[in-house]
Amino acid sequence: MIGGVAVTALLLTLGGCASPRHASPASSAEPAPDRPADIYASPATGPQPNVVRTGRYQLVPLAPTSGQRNLLAQAVTIDLPQSMSLTVRDGLVHVLRDSGLRLCPRLSQTGFFSSPLPAVHRELGPTTLSDALQVLAGPAWRLDVDYAKRTVCFDRRARTAQMPPSGRQRS
């Protein structure tokens, strides 16, 4: 039994010493033919990538997102409590809360925006800010954004374009 353990230990010791030696990285500029190229080595020349490594496997682009370039393209989610009595204006203000835009001051006098917010509009998204605002306002209103003042206004559409086309007709 002791002889078997001694033989196993001897074989393990010799096997560890028999492993091939690796050339030091400073000794050769190119990898040895039997070794794969280092894909993580940074090239000495060439175009610089437009990303920055923030973790071992995570690269972050060095460019603004579409929502940062165009505030109406940012993703939003609406989740308002069903128990609260909210108006359309309340829903619009909630959606615009952290968007960088605000509701046009002249809309506070418009009667439509003081009407109750439909229950189906209390949960919406994720969607773009422009789509959420248009859904909350409804088909009778056209979205109008003043980027200089960062305000969102709504203009009344022509009467012919007030109702969206329906898939079924009532008889």
From TrEMBL:
Segments of skewed composition (Low complexity): 21-31
Source taxon at top rank: Bacteria
InterPro entries cross-referenced by the UniProt entry: Integr_conj_element_PilL
Start and end residues of each stretch annotated as Disordered: 21-48
Record has Signal as a keyword: yes
Signal peptide positions (record): 1-23
Keywords: Signal
Name of this protein: Uncharacterized protein
